[in-house]
Amino acid sequence: MADKKAQLIIEGAAPVELPILTGTVGPDVIDVRSLTATGRFTFDPGFMSTASCESKITYIDGDNGILLHRGYPIEQLAEKSDYLETCYLLLNGELPTAEQKAQFVSTVKNHTMVHEQLKTFFNGFRRDAHPMAVMCGVVGALSAFYHDSLDINNPQHREISAIRLVAKMPTLAAMVYKYSMGQPMMYPRNDLSYAENFLHMMFNTPCEIKPISPVLAKAMDRIFILHADHEQNASTSTVRLAGSSGANPFACIAAGIAALWGPAHGGANEAVLTMLDEIGDVSNIDKFIAKAKDKNDPFKLMGFGHRVYKNRDPRATVMKQTCDEVLKELGIQNDPQLELAMRLEEIALTDPYFIERSLYPNVDFYSGIILKAIGIPTSMFTVIFALARTVGWISHWKEMLSSPYKIGRPRQLYTGYESRDITKLEDRK
Ligand code: CMC
């Protein structure tokens, strides 16, 4: 795919010819791999202009608000598919036939329980620990339990690990919540759908099993679909980088969870609610909008803006519709925090500062509101993002391992001291 070439002119040196690679859709990329031979590197902190890998899983056109998984638009997947089908698609490249789907769902359900011994890990954590801290620990700890699927060079092991992770994440996420509440942990119920089972493990107790609302289960499933993958974001790149050293899949996913935790990434859904609390009342909005615009103030409107989407976040459009459905089902109309959120949305969509910088509400703006309405505590929001994103992470990890790859090892522009000699302690000033 490299019939075009770019020429790099470096003063005082011979021109360098660099191949231009063309993908199926999206911009061409200049292949700079041969540059090392010239003794030079490229400099691109934040990877604003750098493709770190080739991938067939997800395509994003940020200018036009397009998100495709294996070619299928996210809007169609949210409308016509379900989370486990989307998992199959991401992992295997095609939507399943009815038979393949039944087999996949049954296999996932066979793996929903976690080793009983894993429960004892929880006791080592304080009950008020942040759920993401506990998730980093217990997901990493899975590698100490499933030795039979840790050979990363064995495709069958990779497959079993992928299924285990998709199957066990809801169980672990609900265990984290129950532990924080001091309630007994609930075993998974394999007669329920993936989303119903998660809500069952979260909200039911051994002494009271209530039926799960189909509207809330559908909303949960949509949240899972909309967070399933998003190409080479910070956490997925972390998983790929960890995986490139040969680390086992459970350790790689734990690394992804850690990267997701930050408020600029998956932590944004939690940060949205914290921000709404901080703003407190509609009458304070103008003050906070002014803070968001002030270059000397670190405050940012959480849930607005995106590194890639510079027009609209297609996930946010679907999420907003689900948000309306959930609020209607729960009869929430006059919630002051919701009123505040809607007013912020209105301002951001009309204020020149936000328009000029293309700062639209992103997926986390609405998912935070939905999760709160369902009754999920704010500190669990990013855990739910991690649960849903696990399939994306593991699909990228599998894709990387299925073709020749190199350990990820970025270079740097060194601006520290040149070589110097140590002076004796007594002579140092
Ligand atoms: N509030 C106020 N100003 C903002 C915001 C915001 N949320 N986001 C960006 N800006 C301004 C920024 O100050 C800069 O202004 P100027 O050009 O005058 O210097 C301009 O917009 C461009 O911002 P940037 O920081 O260069 O953009 P980025 O692509 O590096 O950052 C972002 C993207 C998502 C980290 C950022 O928009 C942000 O921090 N948003 C809030 C956190 C958030 O909601 N994150 C969730 C993203 S969706 C979930 C996911 O996929 O992980």
Automatic annotation (TrEMBL):
The keyword Cell division does not apply. One of its GO terms (biological process) is tricarboxylic acid cycle. Keywords: Acyltransferase, Transferase, Tricarboxylic acid cycle. The active site is at H306, D364. GO terms for molecular function: citrate synthase activity. Pfam families: Citrate_synt. Gene3D superfamilies: 2.20.28.60, Citrate Synthase, domain 1 (1.10.580.10), Cytochrome P450-Terp, domain 2 (1.10.230.10). GO terms for cellular component: cytoplasm. It comes from the Bacteria. Pathway: Carbohydrate metabolism; tricarboxylic acid cycle; isocitrate from oxaloacetate: step 1/2. PROSITE patterns: CITRATE_SYNTHASE (PS00480). It catalyses: oxaloacetate + acetyl-CoA + H2O = citrate + CoA + H(+). Signal peptide: none annotated. Belongs to the citrate synthase family. This is Citrate synthase.
